[in-house]
Amino acid sequence: MLPIQEERDLHDGTQQRLVTLGVQLRAVQAGLPLELEDLSAELNHVVAGLTTAQDELRELARGVHPAILSKSGLSPAIRSLARRSPAPVDLEVQPVGRLPQPVEVATYSAASEAGPTQPTKHANASDLNVCLELRDGTVRLVIA
Question: Which of 13, 46, 81, 127 is deepest in the core (most CB within 10 A)?
């Protein structure tokens, strides 16, 4: 498993660079004179390759989760997410013990996508509340 920072680098860094390169190539292509249609066709091929690489990287990144999740479980992984938040986080994380891997991965993925960094990035949230508990065999994750 890749550490958290490497996971973020894949998602936020490498994928974004590939998108930017594709956009730049399309801009160059749009400025080509009509008589350079062979070059334009080559650029189409390169952009198609970049798109395929983006898709492959996206699939790879989906299967990557931080070592703390694999090693220590969901509660410590959620705490780790909260520590990375740019806004203060009121954290209510009950020890839920080890859960089946698909449950841990799905819950961590939801927490990672919903917050704690996303609300401050996209909604200008000034503070967050994250609650994780196991009640009657059901994992409950609330991010507000």
Answer: 81
